[in-house]
Design brief:
The chain is α+β, with helices and mostly antiparallel strands. The protein has 12 helices and 24 strands. The strands form 6 sheets. Strands 1, 2, 9, 10, 11, 12, 19 and 20 form an 8-stranded mixed β-sheet that branches. Strands 13, 15, 16, 17 and 18 form a 5-stranded antiparallel β-sheet that branches. The protein has a 4-stranded mixed β-sheet with strand order 6-7-5-14. Strand 11 and strand 12 form a beta hairpin. Helix 1 runs parallel beside helix 5 and helix 2 crosses helix 8. The longest helix has 20 residues. The chain is globular and about 65 Å long.
């Protein structure tokens, strides 16, 4: 049987890869996405502040600034069509000294103007009226009203689900082992870890932290990625702020932020720790102390708020100093979408649009599909299902809601997948009470989608409790 020759294979199931897949699914193309992890949104995309930046501080003329500019135009329609939780709250960069005020006036206001972003200086009185918890030592701040918050889990999942509904294939839990560059007729041969070979006319490298390693598979060493860890703290205690709170950045980091969460609560962080290990997502006492010191500088006493979770993400720092969105230097059939740093969530729709243009420039015909879907149905519709018993008390998540995500166009088979789709385990108990019930629901046979039945997760509940028991033994 002849091997299918796809038009495009996207490598990487983070928010950038899924945004690209969604964009390309609007065209008459045979598409596939491959992801090493068992679900989408398992890397940098799941551990970030969720801010949709305006690009007010992006380097003018950079690829990053252009992608952010495009994304600002695209986000409103995407939020409405894909039912993505979104909070338009604005941000304030707080100045606590004349030196910081001068940096804002001399650097950030002109930079924002160059990027076409509306900002304005506000005095101390207006700053504290908007955000009473801010330190009385503040002398004012830069108001960026266009800054927003999005749920990155929901956005990533929605991009992938719409692409699947438009005919794209998503293959999870199987990373790329090698890439062969054959003739134009044979296409690229993407060899997966289990030995499967996927042939494609073009490939998009959206592998995040591993994008440089994907490049080297075809002999392209034109850029490299350094991992930078950012630790976060999440609290659900009330804090008297109405906007994102930003410090005046340094050359290394934007500093410790306070960010509202779309479903309630606040996120504090991140740190900025360069490291060699791309897998190290550990949290440390020193990291938590850095967060406490940073947040207390602008919001005195907030570090004393009870934390319901600490976590870390690792973001890509690229040798190019900018996004790398171009054809590979080794093979023009591979388009890089690499070096996407902390603004990846914000810029993802703009990156997707630019990647589509790069593919067209490389020779891929793009013809719009008249029948392409642009909207998703509501993920949770109580009138269309039996809600059933509540399985997550903290978030009032019902059995019916978990059943629904099992039947979606991109079904999940893990606790993390349920968490990112429903919010279960994200409450105060952090899953201590609901995980057994969720395991029971996941272990039941059901229909994943119209394409493939969900395989029963045999022994999942037993293996979970076995691992918990082992951890208890090690602690004692």
């Amino acid at each position: 049987m002849p091997t299918t020759l796809h038009d495009v294979v996207v490598i990487g199931g983070g928010i950038v890869g899924t945004a690209i897949l969604r964009e390309l699914s609007q065209y008459k193309l045979d598409l596939c996405l491959v992801e090493k992890q068992p679900d989408v949104c398992e890397g940098t995309s799941k551990a970030n502040s969720g801010i949709v930046h305006t690009g007010f501080d992006a380097p003018p003329g950079s690829i990053e600034a252009e992608c952010l500019r495009r994304a600002q135009r695209l986000w409103p329609e995407l939020v409405a069509a894909l039912k993505i939780p979104f909070l338009s709250c604005g941000a304030v960069m707080v100045a606590c000294s004349d030196e910081e005020k001068a940096i804002i006036h001399d650097v950030y206001i002109p930079n924002a103007a160059a990027n076409g972003v509306d900002v304005r200086w506000i005095g101390k009185e207006e700053l504290l009226e908007r955000n009473p918890a801010v330190t009385s030592a503040a002398i004012g701040g830069l108001l960026i009203e266009g800054e927003s918050i999005v749920d990155p889990f929901w956005a990533t999942r929605s991009f992938a689900e719409l692409a699947v509904l438009n005919g794209a294939d998503v293959r999870l839990g199987n990373g790329v082992a090698s890439i062969g560059t054959g003739s134009q007729e044979e296409g690229l041969a993407i060899v997966l870890e289990d030995g499967q070979v996927i042939r494609t006319r073009y490939a998009v490298n959206a592998a995040g932290l591993w994008s440089d390693e994907i490049g080297r598979m075809i002999g392209d060493d034109s850029f490299w990625i350094t991992p930078r860890k950012g630790q976060f703290l999440l609290t659900e205690e009330p804090i008297a702020v109405s906007t994102i709170i930003l410090p005046v950045p340094t050359k290394v980091t934007k500093g410790i932020l306070l960010t509202p969460v779309v479903f309630g609560g606040f996120m504090l962080g991140p740190t900025a720790e360069d490291q060699d290990d791309k897998w190290d997502r550990s949290t440390t006492g020193e990291g938590m102390r850095q967060i406490a010191a940073g947040v207390d500088k602008l919001l005195p006493g907030v570090s004393a708020c009870a934390s319901i979770r600490q976590f870390a993400g690792v973001r890509a720092v690229c040798s190019a100093g900018d996004y790398v969105i171009r054809a590979s230097t080794a093979d023009s059939r591979v388009i890089h979408a690499a070096g996407i740093r902390s603004t990846g969530v914000s810029a993802s729709p703009g990156i997707a649009e630019m990647v589509a243009e790069r593919l067209e420039q490389a020779g891929l015909p793009l013809r719009r599909k008249a029948e392409a879907r642009s909207e998703l149905p509501e993920l949770f519709d109580d009138e269309a299902q039996d809600a059933g018993e509540i399985v997550c008390l903290c978030r009032s998540i019902t059995r019916g809601e978990v059943e629904r995500v099992k039947r979606s166009s991109l079904p999940c088979s893990t606790i993390d997948g349920v968490k990112r789709r429903t919010g279960a385990t994200l409450g105060e108990c952090q899953g201590n009470y609901c995980i057994p019930q969720l395991l029971d629901v996941l272990g039941e046979r059901g229909t994943a989608s119209s394409h493939e039945p969900l395989r029963p997760l045999k022994g999942l509940r037993q293996s979970y409790f076995a691992s918990v028991g082992k951890e208890e033994e090690e602690r004692t």
